[in-house]
Amino acid sequence: MKTEPTSDMQFFVLVARLGSLAAAARAMDLTPPAATKRLAALEARLGVRLLNRTTRSVSLTSEGETYLQYAARILDDIRDMEDAVAQGRSTPKGLLRVNATLGFGRTTIAPLVSRFSARYPDVEVQMEVTDKPIDLVESGFDLAIRFGALPDKRLNARRIMSNRRFLCASPGYLERHGAPRTLADLASHRCIIHRQNDDAYGIWRFQYQDHTEVVKVHGNLSSNDGDIVLGWALDGQGILIRSEWDLAKYLDSGRLRIVLPEFTLPSADLFVYYPSQRNQTIRARAFIDFLAEHFQRGKVRAPSQKA
Description:
Elements (H helix, E strand, L loop, with lengths): L4 H14 L2 H7 L4 H15 L4 E3 L4 E3 L1 H24 L8 E8 H18 L3 E8 L5 H4 L3 E5 L7 E7 L3 E5 L1 H7 L15 E2 L8 E6 L2 E6 L5 E2 L2 H9 L5 E4 H10 L3 E3 L10 E6 L6 H15 L11
Parallel strand pairs: 3-4, 3-5, 8-11
Antiparallel strand pairs: 1-2, 5-14, 6-14, 7-12, 7-13, 9-10
């Protein structure tokens, strides 16, 4: 099997990132035997073993680590070269890899990707949704769409929507248990805890005037899924922290009410993150501008907030 060096590099980088020959075969529309044969041909040409293979997974040899490092860098350089040559082209073109959160990615970003594709049919968009932030640099994504700040100094960011966070509860819960009047009152309330990434469990931080107040809360219900905890709040199970994006329609309808509005929570603004070590491509800039246009002009927005 004779292939071009850049094609071999693309194949190997994909295998390494997916961690499976079978997954890489599916992504490249190859049969598993063809993928195995292609890897064998690459190793034979180089005269080294690049992968340790089992029936379920693959792992890189030390030679494979070296090949991956160089191949990823060369492919990035080739893409940068092509983008630099094409700077004068008015129509974006090429591959754009996008990462977004699970629920928001499905319900909001995916429809926008569809509209973007209709406007720019020469751009191939590969979208992946994950429950946790990923390493853009190592994973090869062009950009990620996330709520809140990411602690990665290697990335640049553009805010495309402000998104405040509030304490809320259902009218039924507040009628049964009363509304808290101070932060200290939260200790005697049932609080629904949304477990996110490495956040300290049950620790809520508020800004009041010129200082920060930290409250340890308790409750019978917690989950790492935002839709689940929101559903529990709607069921009257307790007090919850959610952003105005999630709350707006329920506040408008009266199914949820804000409590302790004078205490400010850290915001969950919507950002697009992208690697800073290379120039941003035309297609990435076009996609980010497209998102900003839709959010800022109200084509996609959180409804008005009612306190």
